[in-house]
């Protein structure tokens, strides 16, 4: 019993801190490595490691053609566009600021469910959407941010990435996928890694040997592959079986706080008063939205993080 409680505490620590820190490590890596090349290496290595672990655990790796196609489609929405383009946009924005934009994902999910499934919004959801929109406006209307080179493009692209993640969650909630989520993630990462590698070649990105990477970039990639893509996902999957979805979903408004503090401390990113106020309003809206049980099914499938 004590071991179980300890494991739950460690798992929450993992999804809070590790997933919150991925914005920092992505920012460090993309300042030296081309974005699509970096993302392709991360997901290819993580995908291969997942398959090796799954084989060692004697899990069934065989899937149907339809399941493979759905893994590729969801892998595109989550990892190729949702993450690959997100990392590219980090070249123009601070990691903490980008994390706050990413926290609007539950808002996008709610709107998509309204458009696709015609599900009516209840009072609590409407309050959440309203707060989310106000918080987003306060966040992106800061003159110090919008006047910097490439910032508007970065903001626009990250919001399209959030939309991609959100639609991916809606798609996965209805798609025929392998029963074992670990296997699904492995196939998603392998497909995404290959497609991102093709994109890297298409954009003539420079291929840099890992032996030539600065030490901090090597460390960042290890953290992203091992902790961000494998360990944190396993902790998330474990928590979904042990505690309520509402408790697990608290990572949606803890991760941005962690990302902002880490970016401020390690990368000297500016924390303006307006950003702090915007984050409080925005994350309050996220809280109202994620507390709705009717989107729990979609949230369970939205395990992909930057």
Radius of gyration: 19 Å
Domains, number:
1
Multimer state: single chain
In what range is the share of β-strand residues? under 5%
Query: Helical proportion?
Result: over 70%
Largest β-sheet summary? none
> What is the terminal-to-terminal distance?
33 Å
Task: Find the structural class using helix and strand composition.
Answer: mainly alpha
What is the number of E strands? 0
What are the secondary-structure elements, in order, as H or E? HHHHHHHHHHHHHH
C-alpha geometry: globular
Q: DSSP helix count?
A: 14
Mean pLDDT: 86
Low-confidence stretches: 294-304
Verbal overview:
This protein has 306 residues and is mostly helical. The chain has one domain. The protein contains 14 helices and no strands. It has helices at residues 2-30, 35-56, 65-89, 95-102, 105-116, 123-140, 143-146, 151-174, 181-202, 215-242, 245-248, 251-266, 273-290, 296-300.
């Amino acid at each position: 019993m004590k071991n179980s409680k300890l494991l739950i505490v460690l798992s929450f620590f993992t999804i809070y801190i590790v997933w919150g820190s991925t914005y920092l490590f992505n920012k460090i890596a993309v300042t030296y490595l081309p974005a699509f090349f970096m993302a392709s290496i991360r997901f290819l290595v993580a995908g291969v490691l997942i398959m090796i672990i799954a084989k060692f655990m004697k899990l069934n790796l065989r899937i149907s053609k339809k399941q493979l196609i759905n893994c590729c489609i969801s892998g595109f929405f989550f990892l190729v566009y949702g993450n690959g383009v997100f990392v590219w946009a980090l070249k123009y924005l601070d990691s903490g600021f980008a994390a706050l934009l990413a926290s609007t994902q539950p808002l996008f999910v709610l709107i998509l469910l309204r458009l696709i499934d015609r599900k009516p919004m209840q009072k609590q959801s409407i309050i959440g959407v309203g707060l989310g929109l106000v918080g987003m406006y306060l966040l992106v209307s800061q003159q110090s941010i919008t006047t910097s080179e490439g910032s508007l493009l970065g903001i626009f692209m990250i919001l399209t990435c959030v939309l991609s993640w959100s639609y991916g969650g809606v798609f996965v909630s209805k798609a025929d996928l392998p029963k074992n989520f670990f296997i699904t993630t492995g196939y998603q990462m392998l497909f995404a890694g290959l497609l991102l590698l093709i994109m890297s070649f298409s954009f003539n990105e420079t291929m840099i040997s890992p032996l030539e990477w600065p030490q901090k970039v090597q460390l960042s990639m290890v953290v992203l592959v091992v902790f961000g893509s494998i360990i944190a996902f396993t902790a998330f999957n474990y928590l979904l079986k042990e505690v309520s979805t509402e408790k697990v979903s608290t990572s949606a408004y803890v991760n941005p706080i962690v990302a902002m503090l880490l970016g401020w401390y390690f990368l000297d990113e500016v924390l303006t008063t307006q950003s702090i106020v915007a984050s409080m309003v925005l994350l309050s809206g996220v809280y109202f939205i994620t507390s709705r049980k009717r989107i729990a099914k979609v949230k369970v499938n939205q395990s992909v993080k930057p």
